[in-house]
Write a structure and sequence with these properties.
The protein is mainly alpha-helical. The protein contains 7 helices and 3 strands, in the order ααααβββααα.
Length: about 190
């Protein structure tokens, strides 16, 4: 049996003595029972905590093992998938332009034209800033919120037209101008 020398405060010592007289037991017996009860409660609490902790620990280990098995199975499939992708990429790489890229460009061109035609009128002539030097403007629409504006002076367009179409075609511009003027005058008379 181990002997403990416990120093209590005067109030605790007086309370222990009163309890010993009242119960007919010695102070040592009361102290021993109180310490034993306290240690038992501590041991019960510790066991309860360990049990709770172990349950969650086991749960976590099971979850981690299941996740590891799942990831492992998926990683094992990656090599087969990589080989399949590589085979497909090699096939695409060996396709010619008409077969592989042109269908994509065709759809892209169609969508750009559809979107560009929605900017009405497109192209148009802007002569508000300087009527002597009108600017021809156009918009290329890629998406509802994605467009690109083009601007060229009308004089430059006439110059380019002559350069590409030749003097003969360029000399017909006054005829085109006359027809447009006649249409405008007819609309004005209505």
């Amino acid at each position: 049996m181990a002997i403990f020398n416990v120093r209590l405060s005067r109030e605790d010592e007086a309370e222990l003595s009163a309890a010993a007289k009242k119960s007919g037991r010695s102070k040592s017996e009361i102290a021993r029972d109180a310490i034993s009860a306290h240690l038992k409660t501590m041991a019960d609490d510790e066991k309860r905590w360990e049990t709770l902790h172990d349950d969650w620990s086991d749960y976590g280990a099971v979850v981690l093992d299941a996740y590891g098995a799942l990831v492992g199975a998926q990683v094992a499939k990656l090599d087969a998938l990589r080989k399949a992708f590589q085979t497909r990429l090699d096939e695409i790489e060996n396709m010619d332009w008409e077969q592989s890229i042109e269908p994509v460009y065709s759809l892209f061109r169609q969508k750009v034209i559809e979107k560009s035609e929605s900017y009405h009128p497109n192209p148009w002539i802007d002569c508000e800033k300087d009527p002597q030097n009108p600017i021809v403007k156009g918009a290329i629409g890629f998406a509802a919120d994605d467009s690109y504006s083009l601007k060229r002076p009308l004089e430059q367009l006439f110059y380019d037209y002559c350069e590409f179409a030749g003097w003969e075609a360029f000399d017909k511009i006054p005829d085109i101008y006359s027809r447009a003027r006649a249409r405008l005058e007819a609309e004005e008379k209505k």
